[in-house]
Automatic annotation (TrEMBL):
Domain of life, source organism: Bacteria
Keyword tRNA processing: no
Organism: Filimonas effusa
Membrane topology summary: Multi-pass membrane protein
Main location: membrane
Keyword terms: Cell membrane, Glycosyltransferase, Membrane, Transferase, Transmembrane, Transmembrane helix
GO biological process terms held by the UniProt record: lipopolysaccharide biosynthetic process
GO CC annotation: plasma membrane
Bilayer-crossing regions: 7-28, 82-103, 110-127, 133-149, 161-190, 202-221, 241-259, 265-286, 298-318, 324-342, 354-374
GO terms for MF: pentosyltransferase activity
Entry protein name: Uncharacterized protein
Compartment(s): Cell membrane
């Protein structure tokens, strides 16, 4: 018990309770990605197969998070959607505790540690993630474990610790493909630990890199063997680099809370954060003690991870940079910022402490007050309507969903069902629908256009412009409404006898 940080443990328990509080109305938040994770976990549990609800192999996402959810099913006997609040509460509490342990490696200030705990517990950035059934919940914890192991390795270059680092980084890679940033972070710290002989540094870097990469390589080879692609079909990026920098800057503004919605200087803030991080990392390279310090390791991960997200968003197309994508960098950044601010009085000892402590205290109060205000607003929304996603009241009480549930013989067996929200159909009704084809997938569009008889469940709330449009569908199909409601329509579709050429483009 003497090694347990009581303050960190109490903070972790508070974090656990807050997740339960935020999810008590409608349960854990479920997004389209969550539906895939959950369905794969169910298939592992019931059929020992890595397949999603649509009987397609899991390729777009790495395997470890669904495996983790399936393990929770074996242990608890509960579906991940049911156990999600407790599972995420435990992960959030563990993250807070690990952050407390990490901060003690750099600072002995009790005041600074409590500032960290309070900032984490009521953080809108983290609450937004830990109230959802997302792989980031596990990835962030693995990231913090890796940072702690890296610091331990820097204290004593143990092969056992190095192997532990490799396993942790490897598991992170098969939780999210962005886990390669943890391999890069560990490799950077090991290779540039200048007070260690060069040959040893190179050897340990190669060993760490090979062992950690083996997890990802095995996952990618499995994907290639099954589908011929390493990570599924990926579209080329369409967002310029500096536009992504702007989006990254808006997330930083949101993290500061009191700048939320004020994005005029978002790009400059993003550039400044990366430049300052790079300068500090280079500076610490030539200070062996500070290079292996906890705050520098956290800074290295923040820089590498953030830069990776911005660059990869420019090269490959996926959702716009947002809090979810950048959330693994939040806790390390918070750790670095609070440590740096807490050491200002020591570094500027020639200045009266009052001149530093008063503005720092005011900044902290402003930051926390704005965090409380945003988190309170989130709680009020969740408490009245549920967490945005398929467990929200609007989806749970959807007339279209209830009609399907009340009419199990509505659809002819063996006839394909299409939808503009296939995950919603599966999650709310248990039916395995196909997604309407994306406009860029010409072969899928052609197959859809030639399909004679099928059903279409169209939700008004979903407006995905990447999917084929209604004008295109009506030009190729004869639509017979089977049920019309305020939130959508269920159609029976057959081929038009003659297509209107002006609507040939999807």
């Amino acid at each position: 018990m003497k090694h347990i940080d009581t303050n960190a443990l109490l903070s972790a328990i508070a974090g656990f309770c807050i997740i339960l509080l935020f999810t008590h109305h409608g349960g854990i938040g479920v997004s389209p990605d969550s539906v895939v994770y959950t369905s794969v976990a169910r298939n592992i549990y019931h059929h020992h197969q890595l397949e999603a609800y649509n009987h397609m192999p899991l390729v777009d996402f790495p395997v470890f998070y669904p495996v983790f959810l399936s393990v929770s099913m074996f242990v608890s006997g509960l579906d991940p959607v049911v156990s999600g609040p407790v599972l995420n509460g435990l992960l959030f509490g563990l993250l807070i505790y690990l952050c407390g342990v990490a901060f003690r490696k750099s600072s002995s200030s009790v005041t600074a540690r409590w500032a960290l705990y309070l900032s984490l517990i009521i953080s809108p950035a983290l609450l937004n993630v830990y109230t959802m059934l997302w792989s980031e919940t596990l990835f962030i914890v693995l990231s913090m474990v890796l940072l702690l192991l890296t610091h331990k390795y820097c204290q004593k270059t143990s092969l056992t610790v190095l192997i532990g680092m490799a396993v942790c980084a490897g598991l992170a890679c098969i939780t999210r493909y962005a886990g390669i940033t943890l391999i890069a972070t560990g490799g950077f710290i090991i290779l540039f630990r200048l007070n260690t002989p060069l040959r040893k540094r190179i050897g340990h870097t190669l060993l760490f890199g090979c062992l950690s990469s083996a997890f990802l390589l095995a996952n990618l080879l499995r994907n290639a063997q099954i589908t011929g692609t390493f990570t599924g079909e990926r579209e080329k990026g369409i967002t310029p680099f500096f536009t992504n920098m702007y989006y990254y800057g808006t997330v930083l503004c949101d993290w500061l809370s009191f700048l939320k919605g004020h994005y005029q200087g978002a790009t400059l803030l993003a550039i400044a954060s990366l430049l300052l991080s790079a300068i500090l990392l280079i500076r610490h390279l030539f200070r062996p003690v500070s290079h292996g310090a906890m705050h520098n390791i956290a800074l290295a991960f923040f820089f590498i991870y953030t830069l990776f997200i911005v660059v990869s968003s420019t090269i490959s197309r996926y959702e716009q940079i947002n809090n979810r994508l950048l959330s693994p960098a939040f806790a390390p950044l918070l750790l670095v910022v609070i440590y740096s601010l807490s050491t200002l009085p020591e570094r500027f000892s020639h200045i009266r402490k009052t001149y530093l402590l008063v503005p720092l205290a005011l900044m902290f109060i402003l930051f926390q007050a704005s965090q409380v205000q945003i988190s309170k607003s989130m709680y009020n929304e969740y408490n009245h309507y549920g967490i945005p996603g398929y467990t929200q009241d609007s989806w749970r009480h959807s007339p279209v969903t209830q009609h399907i549930q009340n009419h199990p013989n509505l659809f002819k067996p063996g006839t394909t069902i299409y939808s503009n929200a296939q995950e919603a159909v599966y999650f709310t009704t248990g039916l395995a629908a196909k997604s309407l084809p994306h406009t860029i997938d010409t072969q899928d569009v052609e197959t859809f256009a030639k399909t004679n008889e099928h059903y279409l469940i169209r939700y008004n709330e979903v407006n995905d412009t990447d999917l084929v449009s209604m004008p295109f569908i009506t030009a190729h199909k004869k639509l017979t409404p089977l049920y019309t409601a305020t939130d959508g329509v269920i159609y029976s579709c057959t081929l038009q006898k003659a297509n209107n050429s002006e609507h040939d483009h999807p």
